[in-house]
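Take a specimen:
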Amino acid sequence: RNCRYMANASAVIGMIIVGIDPALAVSGYGVIQVNKTSLALIEAGIIKTTAKEITPARLDKIYRGVLKLISDTGADCLVLEKIYSHYKHPATACILGQARGVICLAAFTAGVPFFEYSATRIKKAIVGKGLASKAQVQRMVTHTLGLKTLAPYLDVTDALALAIGHSYI
C-alpha cells in the first residue's frame, strides 16, 4: 500500500469498516471506526499497480494489499461499489471485474463479510442525493470525518464514502 494517511487507531473502539474503490491501476481504500455517536478515520490510501506489470502480477499485488489491509486494521467488514458499466466500454467492466474479484477473494480468505452498494445509493446516504458530484461527495466525506484537507485522490474519497455510507445504511 502506498500514499497512506493514518490516525490514532487506539483512540476509538468500535466496528471497523474498510471501503475500497477498486481498479486495476489505482484502488483507493478508506478505513473508519464507527462508534455509537461518531466516525473516526483509521487509515486511507491507495494500492497502485503499473501498466508495465503483467495483469496477474497486478492482481496479486491488489489481493495481497487487501489481505494485509484487513489484517493490519482488524476489519469487521469490507464494502465495494457495485459494477456499473457503460455499454460502450465493456473491456473496462472486465478489467474492473478482475480487480473486484481478487478483492472479494481476499475478504473471503480473511473471513470478513463483504457488502456492495450502487454509487447512487452511497451518494444518497452521504450527500442526500443520488446524483451528487464527486466534488460534493469529497466535501461531505471531509466534513463528516473532520479532516483538515481533502484526500489527494478521488479514489480515496470514494472508498471512504463507501465505508461511511455502509455505517449509515
Q: What stands out?
A: Confidence is low (pLDDT under 50) at residues 1-12. The radius of gyration is 15 Å.
